[in-house]
Amino acid sequence: MRCSFLRYLALALVAGCTAEAPRTRAASALVPALQASAPPARVVAVTFDDLPWARTGGYDEARLAELTADLVRRIRGAGIPALGFVNEQKLEAAPGREALLRRWVDAGLELGNHTYSHRSFWTTPREQYQADVLKGERVTRRLMAARGTRPRFFRHPFLNTGPDLANKEAFERFLAANGYRVAPVTIDNEDYLYALAYDRAMARHDSAAMRRLGADYVRYMDTTFAFYEALSRRLLGREPAQVLLLHANALNADYLNELAAMMRRRGYTFAPLDRVLRDPAYRQPDRYTGRRGLSWLQRWAITRGAHPGVEPAISPWVAEASAPDR
Ligand SMILES: [Zn+2]
Predict the structure, then answer these.
(1) How many Å lie between the centroid of ligand 1 and the Cα of residue 170?
(2) How far is the centre of ligand 1, averaged over its atoms, from the C-alpha of 59 (Å)?
(3) How many structural domains comprise the chain?
(4) What was the pLDDT predicted at 20?
């Protein structure tokens, strides 16, 4: 409640500033105070996991091509230099899936490695996990080579970085030896649960439920940004350039414009991941090795012995609509 009220206040003050400041001397005297309430200049890299598509089961191939085209077009239209992380195993499920990835590359978007088969490092021996990384780069490497570039970033499935520090660090050395850098996430969230409920609503042609889910999703993501921004300030005394994790799904394809507008309202501009990772925050140690996938902000907090906070929950009705037994 407090965060949303403060945001409302900030927006109301900014609106007042725009409307009134040029008119009178008294109003212009207010400008410095009003500017102090405006959202700060913020930077975010937007990344999409589980390419070519997060849950391919509910769609035929023509629909997947259409949805991918929508998602990529909206990413480009919003001016987002997004990066997509690929699970190449999904390319083998049906012919023509490589064309879905080519859409990203042809739009000038970068691709990274998310392992071949999306295993968790927690339950996979490191040698097998590393083999899955190398198996998962063949098509991506070829597609990017055609554009004179190569995959540079690796995203851990489930954000699990391994069962202990020795394996975590050995794997990071393996990544570096193969030209990869870990792609951290600071704005973690449960978009995939909203997306699952959205897919189910779409399958039963329930457009009212889809709209309700979409609106609540954008509200939830707004709250999630506020949470990680506050955690940033508590932990670092400032907000670093952030990294947002999203998944390639119909919800994000349909609501990308609304999400981008929400981020802009919060003061964000979009930057490529390599530029965001120049922020010195990303040089601090992460010694978290728990099973649960966490934001790097929470990992840094745990590493320092600070409380990682409790992330905003999805709405109870969305939890119900995305429950596995439905
Ligand atoms: Zn994933």
Answers:
(1) 21
(2) 19
(3) 2
(4) 31
